[in-house]
Predict the structure.
Amino acid sequence: METVFKIINTSANKESPFDRQERISWWDQKKLRDAKVIVVGAGAIGNETLKNLALLGIGNVMVCDMDVISTSNLSRTVLFKKDDVGKKKAIVAAERFKEMNLEENAMVDCFIGDIVWDLGTGVYRYFDVVLGCLDNVETRFKVNRMCWMASRPFIDAGINELAGSVSVFNAPKTACYECNASESQYKAARVRYSCDDFKKRSISEGRAPTTQVASALVSAMQVQEAVKIICNKQAAYGKKIYYQGTNNAFDLIDLKKNENCLAHVSYDKVIETGMTNQTTAGEFLDFVSRAENSGANSVIDLRGDRSFLQTAKCRFCGKAIDVYKPSFRIFFDELICDSCKSKDITKDEHEERNYISDITLSSDSKLLNMSLDEIGFPKLHIIAVRNAEGSYKYYELSGDLHNVMPNIHKGLQC
Ligand SMILES: [Zn+2]
Ligand SMILES: [Zn+2]
């Protein structure tokens, strides 16, 4: 009799929280546990998506967002409570993800910053699926390009009122987000910048009319597609799933691939290095200039990545100003000399600017002594280096891996 009781107890203790989903014939819980998913955006959709990933037992997640929680977020964010107002979205979302995850060894990391400029290109390579939970076109363009570069599936979700859509891109086989981009989308992607590429001091944040219900709907579809990808089932690659809640219309739209799409740029091979973005430009060039790397007279090529302003003339009086900053860190009203700052002048007279597109070992010492961070390269970025013959190699700042993902990197084989 005792033996019978023992058997019942053992089986009760052994019941997995994932029992019901594991009954699906093709399900592979181990694949979910090992999966690495990056969630860009921890707002309305991101909250739902992280909740879904946690309940499914996804084992490695990185949450990216730069914003803080505001009161108007609370009606759409299942992971945030009233007391969280003012805290960083990515930190709170990551904490709640970890608490809620039924996979005991789940790892979560977060990135707080500007996804467009401060999330290194290399980061995407370490994930199996990229989930876009964004509210603006500029970041979608950027994430899409990074996914194309790293050949990673990108599932983009969007909502408006009672409608929502989920698009599944699989570079380089299918269309990407930019393949069918319109002029108005390109225009929308520029709202944060002045016409000369500098940052505006303030921009009004997106306040799209929507509800929690719409985010829950699109997030459910987004995560379901992610699960299919992780379990090697056929996902809705190259398609947009569109749902209109007002009349319950449901469409599956084929996305046409544009062979001339500007986003179809990829590196063939990435060279992992022990360097970080605290390495100086001079040290980096010393390394890449070795014979076994890119060889003598190699250059850091900034074109196609980020622009760097060395000097400029004061907008008003023409006095020379040493800038030495990447354009994305310059505010449009910054290029004014100290003596003109107090004056009430509004008309630009001088727009002479000296940008740097290549950094070489013969660049000025001020530049060579700057860290790659100061030049504008984020942690774990991939830097394009051109050798004397004009061919390219791509070097990753892999020494940053443990800084960017202190938890997830423990499980990576490297
Ligand atoms: Zn494309
Ligand atoms: Zn001046």
